Amino acid sequence: MAHFPVNHPARPLYRVLSGLIGLYILVFGVFGVFQTWGEGLFGRDSDWALGLRTNLAFSLVSVVFGAVLLVGASRRDNLGHYMNLTAGAVFLVTGILMMSVLQTSANFLNFSMSTVIVSLLFGLVLLATGLYDKVGTAEHAEEERQRRYHTIGER
């Protein structure tokens, strides 16, 4: 079983990264809602917000996701750890699925290739931040460190 590092020294940097991603997604969603308000929920027009193509449904989902990521980045417990792991997986899966339907009528979130690339990039960064921002007691961190640096025969 893989062991996540506990109390990693760069944990504040990872929380800032996930917070910046959450802030970008929230601002993108708000701009997208204003840009696409009055159009169909799953419209396929060429509406762009902050360099990414969007529709009303994708903008509304982005507002919710951005707010959730900001809450997770502001927490000092393991809630942010689990939220970043989950959000990273969701962004990666969404990017891959939307890339597979990019030029079809199944592109209900109105993704473009640039939106797919940003989704995959955000997914990788959020997954990485989720791997390194686990919080625990000093004893738990030392136990994980010992388990990581010692072979089975040395215990």
Architecture overview:
With 155 residues, the chain is mainly alpha-helical. It has helices spanning 11-36, 56-74, 79-100, 113-132, 138-149, and strands at residues 47-49, 52-54. It has a two-stranded antiparallel ribbon with strand order 1-2. Helix 1 (11-36) runs antiparallel to helix 2. The longest helix is centred in the first third of the chain and has 26 residues, at 11-36. It is elongated. The relative contact order is 0.19.
Index terms:
4% strand, two-stranded antiparallel ribbon, 155 residues, mainly alpha
Range of strand content: under 5%
Would you count the extended β strands for me? 2
Query: What structural category characterises the helix and strand content?
Result: mainly alpha
Q: Taking strands numbered 1, 2, ... along the chain, how are they ordered across the largest sheet?
A: 1-2
Q: How are the SSEs ordered, and which strands pair?
A:
Blueprint: H1 11-36, E1 47-49, E2 52-54, H2 56-74, H3 79-100, H4 113-132, H5 138-149
